Amino acid sequence: MEYFLKWRLCSECEFIRMSMPAPPRLLDLAGQSLLRDQASAIAALERLPMELFPPLFTAAFTGRHSETLKAMVQAWPFACLPLGALMKEQQPHQETFQAALAGLDVLLAQEVRPRWKLQVLDLRKNAHQDFWTVWSGTRASMYSLLDPEVPQPMKKRRKVEGCRPGPKPPLAPVEVLIDLCLKERTPDESLAYLIQIAQQRKGMIIIQLDSIQDLEVNCTWKLSTLGKFAPHLGQMGNLRRLLLSHIHMSSHTTLAKEEQCISQFTAQFLRLHHLEELYLDSISFLENRLDQVLRCLMTPLETLSITNCLLSESDLTHLSQHLNVSQLKDLGLSGVSLTNMSPEPLQVLIERASATLQDLDLDECGIMDSQFTVILPALGHCSQLTTFSFCGNPISMDVLENLLRHTIGLRKLSHVLYPAPLESYEDVRGTLHLGRLAHLHARLKQMLQELGRPGMVWFSANPCPQFYKLGLVGESPYQ
């Protein structure tokens, strides 16, 4: 009994000890004490060691000490202030965000700036995510992982004595980095305030187009509008990802004007030396002109997605022969009608990308049995393929079984999304016979098990709301 009581007492003490929150650190207490006196906090910034700036800034940001924040931005001792990462963590009040920008405004107006100049205000929420946790002391071993533009903690201030002052260098601008999304609906408060500042400072703010890496134009544009935008696209020399959607030709535009706009647009690809991902959705002018776009690509693409577009057989032939598709990792042709085309260009395209292709999307392409049979050997060579989707194509059960046999040896292939086979429909109106469908699903599942790949997941997308899964994900409710 005595042993039991001692053990119970010790266990309860351990439980109490583990459930108590950690006491605040001395650094945190000092920061909170300093922030209670705004005048003292601002006066202390001139003598504050640089390693104390981040934790004090975090405390001021969280506690909404706007004037202190404003002063800290002006005295910030590092090249970069990753405010976006802190905003993502802390869910800022609008007043604190405006105070930080007001501090930047004061800094830009100064003729003489602090010794450690702020060069970059980074408002991107997914950049420098380790900075604030490192400086808070919770991840002190992570110093070496900081971005080079953010100076590492505990860096010594060096005094250079006996040097004659040289000519006064011009004041460098402060670069603001932001993930910008312009939509028709009202922007959030922070973005609205930033746009307001930009409009007020037209003479001071310069947008550097060559800093844009990811661009989405997801709105309905006429071809003439795209032509006017084209020169700006050409200035985005570091662009890595481009998405264009819903570009249509106007019935009032002459053929000569159309060709001029298209040439203006395609010529800009000659200047995009870092483009890796290209997404073209609902682009009305691509038919018989795809080669015009491809010829201007300067680097091999990793992702090419052409969806809901009209293409000719010659377009597909040019695509299959182009040098810059041989290293594709993702290829999407969803919504591109291939019903009346020869399957050979698609077969060549898949074969040429087979060493690198990881994701292939041929949904709603109208591919028939005879066409699918031609591309099966090329699919069997795609050693890196992980996902293959071809929903919405009229394929028979025989071809599905043949596909399974051709791809069973692809060890990285884990997900296949396929249409309900033709045999599962009762009539030409597309009415599914659920009993037949369940039987066909069971047959495919049995083949996966017999061929040693029970973990490969095959999904069937059907008109009914339920997805049927094979493999480890579960049974069909109709089995």
TrEMBL record:
<dbReference type="GO" id="GO:0045596">
    <property type="term" value="P:negative regulation of cell differentiation"/>
</dbReference>
<dbReference type="GO" id="GO:0008284">
    <property type="term" value="P:positive regulation of cell population proliferation"/>
</dbReference>
<keyword id="KW-0433">Leucine-rich repeat</keyword>
<dbReference type="GO" id="GO:0045892">
    <property type="term" value="P:negative regulation of DNA-templated transcription"/>
</dbReference>
<dbReference type="InterPro" id="IPR050694">
    <property type="entry name" value="LRRC14/PRAME"/>
</dbReference>
<comment type="similarity">
    <text>Belongs to the PRAME family.</text>
</comment>
<dbReference type="InterPro" id="IPR026271">
    <property type="entry name" value="PRAME"/>
</dbReference>
<dbReference type="GO" id="GO:0043066">
    <property type="term" value="P:negative regulation of apoptotic process"/>
</dbReference>
<keyword id="KW-0677">Repeat</keyword>
<dbReference type="GO" id="GO:0005737">
    <property type="term" value="C:cytoplasm"/>
</dbReference>
<protein>
    <submittedName>
        <fullName>PRAME nuclear receptor transcriptional regulator</fullName>
    </submittedName>
</protein>
<dbReference type="InterPro" id="IPR032675">
    <property type="entry name" value="LRR_dom_sf"/>
</dbReference>
